[in-house]
Design goal:
By secondary structure, the chain is α/β, with parallel strands linked by helices. It has a single domain, classed as Rossmann fold, CATH 3.40.50. The protein contains eight helices and five strands; from the N terminus they run βαβααβααβααβα. The protein has helices at 27-41, 56-66, 75-99, 110-120, 125-136, 151-165, 183-199, 213-227, and strands at residues 15-21, 46-50, 103-107, 143-148, 204-208. The longest helix is centred in the middle third of the chain and has 25 residues, at 75-99. Bound molecules: ligand Z5A. The site of ligand Z5A has 28 residues, from helix 1, helix 4, helix 6 and helix 8.
């Protein structure tokens, strides 16, 4: 049984892994690959989810947030809406899955609030931390994989994907509320994620996401095997591969 190092052992029996990083870093791509590997290898249920969203009510809030409905009210109001979505997501999906012993793979979580609304958006870190404390409580990630990529490259990937899919808002297509921010904003985001990794090295691992998808996948597998060996039995522990 996995004993989470950062979560509440009494509450969480599964493993909670979050993916973070800037736009187009490859989180969705790599979550799908890791989920397939874990389903084949770990013998546990795997729950793939995302933020904002992951539960029907949180997905409604996601649509409003990515359409920019809350932007005129400022980063504090946006952080409150991300938090409202997170409360429902934790109660309805994440905590029940962890109690069933599943591995939860979540595309973005609290570090995105710290980076987007906090470091890049200008919201006081003390306010972000207070929100995090009351909203998340003991349900902390066991491992956070930070996919690091130059913002120019990530935005180009996201734009190329958007061009292929056509316009659309709220559903992750087209330039949404955050993709439309300046390059300077995205540069601050990257620095914020790297600073989080430096501050919490036991929870976080930085993955070089500038390589081809197979190389990124191999680095992630190696890191998961090293940090949470119960999830990939027999894979060996050669240390982080970032
Ligand atoms: N947000 C916030 O502000 N505060 C919060 O608390 C939370 C979130 C939780 C969610 O939007 C937005 O909400 C997000 C932060 C904010 N900002 N934005 N925008 P989203 O979920 O729609 O966006 P995203 O999280 O940035 O996801 P994304 O743009 O879909 O990126 P991704 O999942 O990291 O990448 P991907 O979809 O896997 O790949 C993007 C494209 O690149 C795609 O065409 C791939 O085929 C391609 N790709 C993937 N990997 C590679 C490699 N290795 N090489 C080349 N090409 C690749």
């Amino acid at each position: 049984m996995i004993v989470p190092r950062f979560g509440d052992p009494a509450e969480a029996r599964g493993a909670f892994v979050t993916f973070e990083g800037g736009e187009g870093a490859g989180k969705s791509t790599q979550i799908a690959r890791l989920a397939a590997t874990l389903r084949a290898r770990s013998g546990r249920g795997v729950c793939v989810t995302r933020e904002p969203g992951g539960s029907p009510r949180a997905e409604e809030i996601r649509t409003a947030l990515l359409d920019g409905v809350a932007k005129p009210y400022g980063p504090f109001a946006e952080a409150l809406l991300f938090s409202a979505a997170r409360i429902d997501h934790l109660d309805r999906l994440i905590r029940p899955a962890l109690r069933r012993g599943e591995t939860v793979l979540c595309d973005r979580f609290v570090d995105s609030t710290r980076a987007y609304q906090g470091a890049a958006g200008g919201l006081d870190p003390a306010v972000v931390a207070a929100l995090e404390r009351v909203v998340v409580g003991p349900t902390r990630p066991d491992l956070t994989l930070i996919l690091d990529l130059a913002p120019e490259a990530g935005l180009a990937r996201a734009a190329a994907r958007g061009a292929g899919q056509g316009a659309g808002q709220g559903a992750g297509q087209g330039a949404d509320r955050f993709e439309a921010e300046s390059l300077d904003f995205h540069t601050r985001l990257r620095e914020a994620f790297l600073a989080i990794a430096r501050a919490e090295p036991e929870r976080c691992a930085v993955i070089d996401a500038g390589r081809d998808p197979d190389s990124v996948e191999a680095a992630i597998r190696e890191t998961v095997a090293a940090r949470l060996p119960d999830l990939l039995p027999g894979e060996g522990s050669r240390g982080d591969a970032a």
